[in-house]
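Standup notes
- HV: blocked on the assembly model, inputs below
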Amino acid sequence: MIIDLFLRTHHKPVLDAAERDALEAAFVRTQDFTAKQIVVREQVPLTQCTLLLDGFVERYKDLPDGRRQILAIHVPGDFVDLHSYPLKKLEHSVAALTAIRVAFVPHEAVRALTKTSATLTELLWRSTLIDAAINREWIVSVGARGAAVRLAHLFCEMNVRLQRIGLSDGKRFVFPVTQIDLADATGLTAVHANRMLRQLREDGLVEFRGGEVFIPDADALRRFAGFDPGYLFID
Amino acid sequence: MIIDLFLRTHHKPVLDAAERDALEAAFVRTQDFTAKQIVVREQVPLTQCTLLLDGFVERYKDLPDGRRQILAIHVPGDFVDLHSYPLKKLEHSVAALTAIRVAFVPHEAVRALTKTSATLTELLWRSTLIDAAINREWIVSVGARGAAVRLAHLFCEMNVRLQRIGLSDGKRFVFPVTQIDLADATGLTAVHANRMLRQLREDGLVEFRGGEVFIPDADALRRFAGFDPGYLFID
DNA sequence: CGGGGCCTTGAACGTCGTCAAGCGATGTGG
DNA sequence: CCACATCGCTTGACGACGTTCAAGGCCCCG
C-alpha cells in the first residue's frame, strides 16, 4: 500500500476502511528521482501533490548571494508538497537528498477526497500543519539556540521521526546528508558545522560520519539539545 | 461583517454568496483582550478558533533560559489559531501585543463548513498554509540574513500586510511593538536591535519610533532587505 | 592520473552578545 | 505632591561565538 507509511505517522484522526481505500485510490502513479534532482521548482504552477515513499528530500530556498537555506527535511511517509493543493504553487523548491521514490495525487483527487470525508480532510490538513509546527521549531533553533545545540536538536528530531517509520532504532540511523547540508539547514557555515560536530563527538553526544548518526546516550543528547518532541504532534 | 477583513486578504479561491454567509454565520461570539494578555496557551486542548478583528497579536515560544522567540505577528483579518482545528492544541502560545478584539468559531462549525463546501475548505486550509509560508521566510531571516537586513525585512513584510487592510499607506504605519519585541522576533538582543535600528534610521531606510514605522523610500528598503513578497501569496 | 566533492584544521577577523550605566516617561504609593 | 520603582530606550567597552580565508587530505570517479 502506498499510504502505509503515511498513516503510520499520521494516525489521527482515525480513518475508516472506506476512507483509507479512497485515499489509497487517489494516487495515480509513482516516479523515481536520483539524488540532487529537483522534484518541485518554486513558483511553477502545480496540479498534483507528492508523497515520499522512499529516500530523503529537502525543501530549500536559494538566496541572492548564492547561499541556501534548507527549510525542512522529509522522510518516507511525508507529503513533500501537500500544501501545493491550496496554494497552487510553492514559494520554495524541493529536491531529492538521496535517490527517492514518490507517488503523486492530483489536486482534483484531493479536492474530491475533501468532498467525501471531513475526517480525511482533517487528516490531510493536519499533516500540512505538523510540517508548519516543525518549521516553527526551526525558527527557534536558528533564532535562539547555539550552533552545537542546533545540530543536536536536529539529530534528536530526525531520530524520533525516523524511529516511527522503522528507520532508526533510537541510537543509530542512516542520515545521508553532507556537512554542507547540515550547515544549510542550521544557518551555519560548513566550517563551523564541522567544528561543532567534532565537539559533539568528543563530548560523547552524537557521532555523525559517513551519512550515519550514532547517539550513544539519547537522553543525554535530548537534555543537551533541550529537545521536547511535543511539536511533532505524536499522540 | 466579521469576515470582511479576512476575505480582503484571502480572496482566493473565490466564495459564492452562500459560502460567505455560511462562514460569517459560523462565528459565535466576540471578545476583547487587553495588551499582553494571553489569548491561547500552549498545550491546552482547544475547541474553537480565533479570528483577529482588531489589534496586533504575537505567537511565541518561551525558552528554558527565560528568553522568548516570537514566531509570527498577526494583523486584523488573520486567524491566529486556525491550525488548532486539525491539531486540537498548539505547541506555542498566542498573546495580544495591543488591546485586541477577536471572534470565535467552534471547531465543530469549521468541520461543518468543510462538509458543505470544498471551496471553503480550500480557502481556510490555504490561509493556514500562508502562515506556514511566512514561518518559512522567517527561518530564512534568522538563519541567513544579517541583523539590519532582518529588521528591514520584517518592516517590509508588515508594510505589505498592513497596506492590504488599509493600515499602511505604503510609507507609514502604526506598529505598536517594543524594541524588545523586535529583538525577540528577529533572534537578536534588544541592545543589538537598538543599534541596528539606529543604523537603519541614519541610512535613511526606516525610522521606527514610538510604535510607528516610517519608510522614506519603500523601494530602497525593499532592495536593502532583499524582500520579495511572493511568499505572502497575494494574487 | 587528474579533478572535484567533501571533510578537516588553523589563524585572523567581525558581528553580535554581555555587562554596565544612565536617561526619560509613566505610574504608584506614602 | 513628591519619592521611588518600573519599563523601554540608548550608548560604551569588552568578549565570545561564528565567519572568512587559506591550505591540505581523502576518496571516488572519469
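- HV (later): unblocked. Residues 146-147, 188-189, 191-192, 195 of chain B lie near DNA strand C (CB under 10 Å from a C1'). The mean pLDDT of chain B is 97.
- Next: hand off to the docking folks.
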